[in-house]
Amino acid sequence: MSDFVEQYVKLLKKEREQDLLPLLQSLTDADKKKFVPELKKLDAEYFKFGITGKSRWGGDQYGYLSTDTQRRILGITHFIVYNRKDFERALNIGIVQKDVLETILPWYCPTWFSDHINRFAETEFIPHFIDYKWYMELVEGGYVTESAQLIGRFLPRVIFSPLQTGKNYEPQLLLERPVTLQKHFWYVFEYSNEIHWSDGNEQFWIKTILDFIGKGLLSRSEILNATTAAINRNFNQSLCGWFVDLLIQLEPTKPELIDLQQDLLNTFNSPHSKPINAALKYFKDIASDEGFDEIAFFEHCPLVLSSESKTTVTNTLMILEKLAKKHQDKRNEISILASQALLHQDDKLQVRAAKLISKYADSSSLDVWEAVSAYQQGLLFEAKTILEPFLMPEEPADDEAANFIEITEPAYRQPIAFPQNFDELVYLASQAFDQNEAYHFDLLPAALLQFQDQMSEENIRKLLPAFQRAFKTITDDWVSTRGYLDNMLAKFLTSYGLLLIEFYPAAARSIKELHNAHRDKLKEKKRDTKWFDSGIKAWDVFTHSKGYKPHKYVLLNALWILEHKVQVPLLSTPTHEPCLVSIEELIRRISIYQNQRTRPGMMDYQVAVMRCFFDKHTDALSLANALLQGEARDLIGFILGEEHQPKPTYQLKPVWLAAALTHRRDDAHQWLQYSKWNQAYLLANFSWSSYIEHYEQEQYNYQKRVYEKVPATRSTVTVSIDKTSVSPAISGIKSLWGKLTGNKTPVADDDGYFDFLELKYKHLSAEHNDIKRFIYLNPNWPEHWLAYINKEAFRYFDLAGENEKRLVISSLETLMTLNYVYGLMGHLFIATCMLLNDKTVRLYAAELWIKGVREKNIDSQHLGKIIGKHEQNGLAPLKRFTDLILSGMLHISSAHDVELEKLLAACIGNMAEKPLTNSKKLLDIYVEVLAANKQSVNNPAVLNTLDIWAQSATGLTSVVERLKQGFSGNKQII
Amino acid sequence: MSDTLTYQYNQLSSLSKVNNSDELFLAQYSEVQKKDASCFFWGKLTDPYVVSRCLLTLSNVVKSNFSLSPYDLMMLKDPIVTAGNEKIRFEGFSHCAGVYARVDVLGDGHDGEFLENGTTNVDFNQPMLSALSSVRKNEEVLLSIGKKEVALHREEGKVIERKVPLPTKWIKGLTSVQVFLSESKPAYKFNRLQAIQLFKSIPTGKPKSDYYLLVRGGKPVFSPVQAGNAITVGGVHRLKLIEPLLLIADQLQVFVHKDQQSTTWQVYIGPVRFSLSISRDSWRGFSGEGAALESLVEDVPQNWIELMDSYSYANQEFNPTLLAVNEGLDIKKVENLTGRLSAIGLLGFDLDENNFFYRRLPFKTSRILTLNPRLKDAEKLIAEGKVLIKSNTGNRVEAEVEGSGVHHMVLLENDEERCTCMWFSKNQGERGICKHILAVKKLLAK
User: What pLDDT, on a 0 to 100 scale, did the predictor assign at position A336?
Assistant: First the structure.
């Protein structure tokens, strides 16, 4: 063996390829086995990659450190020596080729060779060097066992002879071997292949098949059978489509179609629409002929009648109609089948099906009656009118409650559990940064205040996992579900940790260790520790958005209390879901401050007032009378409806303002002087507009190789948040004097919630994870937040990224948990959401409308106006809106239909004079709603628009006529 | 590279014409049963069209993937079949292990003999599936799982091997999904029309938000809004897998897990049932949920597994009390047996009959047991002495478990368990207990 290796290595080094085969022929099977380890070593040496010289540009050039011939010698040796696994693993490109193997196979063929070649049947690509011709030579030579699947994949290339560039069409190549047409050709119909690519635009294959049939080389009937069978083989869309094309080009005659009908029926199971529609076209041709198996057709009908494709359903109905004409005895059966098309919320389809049923079905048949009435609820007006004899008389559906029996909203105003002992605080603290509940942000500082005197060494040890998470939250990489507020809360807890170290150095030693460990880690990573060492006072977001200040001030307030070891609670901690504070509890909390002669934090006070709710005025008032004195008593009385005027002695100015704007907006004017901001801003009366914006976009010009500015358009909604100071500016000297003398200015703008409202970002980073908690600052009137969301999120109308979607969906989710009367910004938000490019967002907006109508806190007319304006300005396709109505707003209850009518009237009244695409659908829905409400159009603006539309678009004439006729009845629009 | 599982089939599955009728031959392989290929079932299918449609849907489930996963997981895993007790059940998982599907061919669905009871992998290859899709209504099809005439195909003397990376998630999912099923209750029944209407309300694309199934005015809909009695469905687009079956369905029944952690959608088509169970979210596989962990707190003695094997036959309803009485086992110990046995792959759950049935997964038990990293971690915590029971008053146990850098506080109180670790804080027990609670429970059980 060593002689052989020596000779081989020499041969390899000297590249004597001509001597290789005689040398390898001398090896026995045992020798080969022994040679394998040596060969592997040589592989490692000769297939090494490295620097082979300098490139043209002066850099290093990389490549194999061996020559092409040496690697070829090794490759041939692999083929002879290795087993399949080693051979396939080794690098031996260009060995399995006809010219190379021709010299080897006659004297040696590895046992694995056949499997190696046949594995290409299942690989994604077949190497170009294996073709049908060579494969057949290998099969005929006995080297390879024939694989039908692989031949099926080769064959599409067989009618082309390869050229230097491109290929030459030579169909006669199919005739070289008799077996090709007799057997192999048919594998193309059985196994997945790429014949649709080989066919090209010139349809080489279809041409060949038709030609061969003409010449009698292929049997037409066999081709037809194989083609229909192939269509049913679950092939990919393109291949399946090619077989359909072939079938169409074969132009089957009626008798042939009768023979093929069972296979054609099976195409109804296809996930693609092309074969179904082709089959339906054929069935239309033969439906009235003798031999048509209508029973089998009926059996398969349900598969196509529920198709998403309108053409498919229409064609099926047309065939059913033909059959109904012919088979008098089966008319009821056909009508029952046709009723399945009533499933579609499409006027045309429903009317077609309804006409068929009313024409052919027996209205006294219980079966038909049962089948049709199953669809009663979803029937559109015209179909319903046609089908009246088959339907149950409708009962007046005034009982709104009945429509909501099965749907109840999540618990509103459920009490929130406050930690009852230190252990509960521990479990709250460890999950506080996970946002399992939005109110955990408020609960954690409140619970720490409650249990601040229980910070023993053992208890601190229990809190360590929470401290660890807080340190991790502020030092680790950002997590996609985290908001800046979570980071702020973590900073608060670590700040409290530092306080504990200061208060109880021994007991809080473990916190100190944790703190140092995280500090060291940062140092190791060479990151700045300045920010880590600073407390919550220095906390800020990189956008410097003021919107985070209210939360920060509440936390600072809590830290101040902990620092001074005062036994008072926070006022703003929610007591009820989702984030409300019961006024009774608020009174009790304020009284603790009064008893301790301590002043509550101003921001905490404002948030508490904005979050408070009450059910029984009198109980709350008597509690306030019993527990509170002075200004706080007046304030609570004011929230509960008492008349109070601003007094010079009042200290809680921002709190009064918050109370007035949240709970007493009708009487708020006199309190607005407590803020320096203009009235429109404070009352959230912002103007908005939507339009198509023309701008210049940067685009790369490939010819000139430069970026160019090209005109472009984009949809936009702008909200102008006009925030101007109306109080006279205080000069620098005056303000310094004020500070020195301790005299405060009459406007308490330092601590005002309304000073800090802001949602500021260029690109959303984590604000979407905070929006819920922003809105929950004022759950009774979050209009300002909605104004900022409208302004920022809809700047380019449609939502571009996942974060934008998250921001809007979170806001919608939050609104769903609230119960407040929407203002201008709330309506703009919901109406815009109804037209956005995300179905979830649209459905959510529809749900808010449903809830708003039920709770009577939404103005449908206002929504309609905004939608009409958006549509008029071309912001969104009308189809989004009509689909939304059909899928989630129509016939929810009679009250909702009345509101929907108002919404649609306002929408149409605000739309352009030129009807948009899909206006017909909108008017169809309007007919539906008017019919349900038994109303007529009586709004002159709407009538006017309808007239103009009818004149400008002929397709709308009939529906406008129908609308103008109206529907008589005794219901009245309120 | 992870371990490899090698399917060894004596022949490929195929659908072929034999004497004017089709024969659907399913090649089988099991790594636990004896290597001699045996035939589990041989006989006619009553409604071959429906069975083919269901098997195609099952193949779509095992081919699907709803979360990002490395390439090696993308290789097709073969479904497994259990034959016995007059039922044939095919089951499989999506690659992401978040969708579980099972086809039950019930007593009326076949007319043939069960030559052997058992569970095995069956080869699902593309040509066979293509052929399956051309099975027409009212056609005659013979089904054979494994070859009846063993000698006949032995002549070919060739084994077809298909290697796939060991589908850890798959096997783990198969064991834990049974626990989810057993904790599910029927919620809604819809007729074909309602079901089609409902599926029409599934939004296009892959919605990231949860959807909720609710019935409004007698009409079922998916809504993005959480209503009080609505059923939570995360990754709702996954349901589209069964949409084609609804067209031929008689009924659709929805089952919901007690904590809304999964939903099961059972389609009834004559004598065939197709059930699709989807996990809480498209990025969550059943495999990672740890639902079966609690059942594994106590070890299953090897002799019980042997007993089960000799005592039960495939698809037979599992009755723990009967087993205890017959085999003289301690009844108290057997009480919790169902959970434990399904966790190691010995039981499946039938929602309609509301009972467990015996089916031994065709994978080595030792293999299945190594698939629970949380369990292994818990055992390691105990071995390293990191678990300290601080107080135990029967219904309240307080313990301290050493974590990385801190000690976690574990509290077991009146069936409620809590821990201060991140896993528990994040999931609040919804995705199985954490390794710390598991360690405390294991220590208490010793």
Answer: 94
